[in-house]
Design brief:
alpha+beta, Rossmann fold, SH3 type barrels, six-stranded antiparallel barrel
Length: 435
């Protein structure tokens, strides 16, 4: 299914104070197009067959709630995205819609004065399961259907190329340098919120709501991100790069509850997404393996040596970036004891392996910032790893951690997120780790 423009046409052309917006969409052999003349926020003329009502005389906000034939509504969405704006209205909330149950319930909480917005992001065209991605064409349709069912406007922002440059390209470069980057943190805590908050301003909204399981608290006199109430769903680690200065315009309506409560609320409202399967992590992989993705996107599969800590060669690899610190399976070295990946040296093109105890790290350096001054914190060094108590030391470009107990599988490129209680008090990217 393709929701993008099917034929080459300039999406926006200015004619004095009036602009012409064009959008089209294709699916199979069918094609639909919409052409709008817009003066400020008002549509003064429209060529838009297949929609449920005429668009001329409507505001852009009103047009975003118009339904009709799916292909025609797709084309309208492509026309509206680049030009959408609305004057400010107190209480209006922009709701980030992923097509899943969490964002749908966030929309319910924000209705009736809400505007749904979905970011269409780049997906690997060779991935095996793009439909599970939070930014897939199917997710866009599900998000729009939820909004329109509630009589609310929905806007799609096509940010595929911007996302590829800001998130996908650094992911590829990081692995090429021998790092283990976490693209979800770069996306959620930086790229995604910057775009969504910019849209909220353009849409005349007071705030932005998302379906993330996180909270906002006052801590040490500052508004800070905090863990969600349900430890099993807490997403504060993935959002930790979100600047505290932006939190005054953000609302996490699901932060105080768990997933089943969210699903039950969606079912009571009769929403079709109540039992929709959750989207996958690293959505741009489209269900594929990251190693295959990197190989297709320019990271060379150059053979090299697998060595122990003393430099003794134990075997061979066909790409150092295929190995992650802490990995045990699939190393390809036969030994009389379990071996783990300790790290990779991109310059030497080697993978270093050793016993589990050799993975232990007590000192960690991170580039980033502290949101408040702290001497001690709980440090979370990987998404699925437990937090470790640590002494925190300021550094010129971030901070250093002295861990009370060793952490295992610490990898350059992963996020180091610091907590004081439930509050996120710092975030950085691991640049080095030592025994």
């Amino acid at each position: 299914m393709e929701l993008g423009r099917g034929r080459e046409a300039p999406p926006v052309v200015y004619r004095g104070c009036v602009l012409e917006a064009f959008g089209d969409s294709t699916r199979g052999g069918d094609w639909a197009a919409v052409r709008l003349l817009v003066d400020g926020e008002l549509i003064v003329e429209a060529d838009a067959p297949g929609l449920a009502r005429p668009l001329a005389g409507l505001t852009l906000l009103e047009a975003a709630a118009v339904g009709g034939e799916t292909l025609a509504v797709d084309a309208l969405a492509n026309a509206l995205g680049p030009v959408f704006r609305a004057g400010p209205r107190p209480g209006r909330t922009a709701v980030a819609m992923s097509g899943g149950v969490d964002s749908a319930v966030a929309l319910l909480r924000a209705a009736p004065n809400a505007v749904g917005v979905t970011l269409r992001l780049w997906l690997d065209p060779d991935g095996p399961d793009s439909e599970r991605a939070c930014c897939s064409p199917a997710a866009v349709l599900a998000a729009r259907e939820t909004c329109h069912r509630l009589g609310l406007p929905h806007v799609t922002l096509d940010l595929r190329e911007e996302f590829r440059r800001a998130v996908v390209a650094p992911f590829v470069r990081g692995y090429a340098r021998g790092e283990t980057p976490n693209p979800c943190i770069r996306c959620n805590g930086s790229f995604r919120f910057a775009e969504l908050l910019a849209f909220a301003h353009r849409a005349g909204c007071d705030r932005l709501a998302t379906g993330h399981y996180a909270r906002i608290v006052m801590h040490r006199g500052r508004r800070l991100l905090a863990r969600g109430a349900d430890p099993a769903k807490d997403q504060s680690y993935m959002l930790a790069r979100l600047e505290p200065a932006r939190l005054g315009r953000v609302w996490f309506p699901l932060g105080g509850q768990g997933k089943e409560e969210t699903r039950a609320e969606a079912e009571r409202a009769g929403l079709a997404v109540a039992r929709r399967v959750e989207s996958q992590e690293a959505c741009f992989l489209a269900g594929g393996d990251y190693r295959a993705f990197l190989g297709r996107h320019g990271v060379a599969s150059r053979k090299g040596a697998i060595v122990d800590e003393n430099g003794n060669e134990l075997g061979a690899h066909d790409g150092f970036w295929r190995f992650t610190p802490g990995q045990r399976r699939g190393i390809g070295v036969a030994a009389g004891l379990p071996l783990y990946v300790l790290g990779a040296d991109a310059r030497a093109n080697t993978v270093v392996v050793g016993r589990h105890e050799a993975l232990a790290r007590r000192r960690v350096s991170a580039s980033g910032r502290l949101y408040v001054g702290v001497d001690r914190a709980e440090a979370k060094l990987r998404y699925r790893s437990p937090s470790v108590p640590a002494r925190v030391l300021r550094a010129p470009h971030g901070f250093e951690l002295e861990l009370d107990e060793p952490a295992y599988g610490v990898a350059r490129g992963q996020a180091a997120v610091l907590y004081e209680g439930d509050a996120v008090v710092g975030c950085g990217v691991v640049s080095a780790a030592a025994h």
